[in-house]
Amino acid sequence: MRVLPSRIDPQSELFEQNRAANLARLAEVDAAQARAREGGGEKYVQRHLSRGKLLPRQRVELLLDRDGWFLELCPLAGHKVGGGVRTGASIVGGVGLVSGVECLISATESTVKGGAMNEYSVLKSRRLAEVAEQNGLPTVNLIESAGADLPNQSKIFVPGGQGFRDLTRASKARQPTVCLVFGSSTAGGAYIPGMSDYVVMVDQQARVYLAGPPLVKMATGEDADDESLGGAAMHSKISGVSDYLATDERDAIRLGREIVRLLEWRKKGGGPSHPADAPVHDPEELLGIASSDVKVPFDALEVIARVVDGSRFHAFKPNYGSTLITGWATVHGHPVGVLANQGVLFSEAANKGAQFIELCNQKSVPLLFLQNITGFMVGTEYEQGGIIKHGAKMINAVSNSTVPAITIMMGASYGAGNYAMSGRAYAPRFLFSWPNHRIAVMGGEQLAGVLDIVKRGAAARAGKPVDEMQLQMMKTMLQQQIDKESDAFFATARLWDDGIIDPRATRDVVGLALSAALTAPVEGTMSFGVFRH
């Protein structure tokens, strides 16, 4: 394969501006992630520690292999959404290495309302379950949960039931589920161990019951104590809900690691098959390459050269449909078919993209989408040329492709371009964003311009003058709304991606995501829907 050259100038003013802006955004990401790591705040963290308990993130750290890794997912879910939702949505989750096995790990944040679930906790837990299902991963749940946050039960109860369904379906699909119970797990919190394949409870700490002593007293008049009603020893010796009785939290984690080791788990999609040498060009330079202003284009080949192994890239149809780069490379030794935006999508680019996706499916090669797209080309010439039907071909190919897809949103993500480049609705296995990312139907300035044209047209048809002050106010308010709602933090808070990542970490994030995806078999398809010609 050809080693990609680089033409960037690290001394240029634009490079320095981009670098400074991206570093500032990454500082915002760090601050937001610090909020997630605070859990319920100093008061509740200290209360938790005073009881001799490990913090949820400490539990995850001890569960992981000493020299392993952890790809955290949706760490900023619920960030600044209000309604009492804490950054992180009261769950720590991701994919990590446990006893040499890639597992989906989920830990309830027990310092936030006793680990009670809010509506964003439900969204995040569903996303984590989806990752486990799609990629064939065993699941380890670290539980200490008060169930649903009852004042918000109307937002939780109905969709929350899917989490229990996911556990039972995972068992049917032979994807083992392991549950370690560290404290009081009530109501919905009790069903998680109840529906898991393997359950470990910590003696004198775990309390698992559908209703605690006060509710039992109200409902039946019975006086019951915590231990006889739902203690770890009782469940291990009498009810059989627990399979293992741990002496303390560290013992529970030891048992969890042993259970995973004894699964004798084997990856079904294979491992790296090529040299995983570092790129020739420095990934540090990605901070200066990625435009801080999404209206300013940048060369996607410069990104590819800093993500793929050895900066080697075999371009497919490089002289046709040039606004979409397609070609083959490897990332950490895993073969991938790369699709990267180099401008707006024309018919030729869409046709090339559809063909390339078919070729990758033909030989069962995963796809890597590097998304920076304002949409498809518009105008009379392009409508008459069939831009809709050509765009539909590419979207059809993305929709029906069966090989794993990883999407990195590295700039703009507007309109149907989001769909054609495997946005969230198209179920890529993993989807991450750079901090400069913006996502919307269109930019705020463009939408305000559309509003201006529509309002002036309506006034002309009605034979009335335009209220310029009112129109300007409407445009300003609309643009401010769109600018706010298209921001990367707004998107990641609502789980439109799996997290905002440092551009310099893109290669490693993609490599870990590919490795996780290859736990499941990789089999492409040649069965697509009807292509309109």
Tell me about this structure.
- The protein has helices spanning 13-37, 42-50, 56-63, 119-135, 157-172, 188-194, 213-220, 226-230, 232-239, 249-262, 286-289, 300-304, 347-362, 380-384, 387-400, 416-420, 444-462, 468-485, 488-493, 506-517; strands at residues 2-3, 70-72, 91-98, 101-108, 139-143, 177-181, 184-186, 198-202, 207-209, 244-246, 312-315, 324-331, 334-341, 367-373, 405-414, 430-433, 438-440.
- The chain is α/β, with parallel strands linked by helices and 533 residues long.
- Strands 1, 11, 12, 13, 14, 15, 16 and 17 form an eight-stranded mixed sheet that branches.
- α4 runs parallel beside α5 (157-172) and α13 runs parallel beside α15 (387-400).
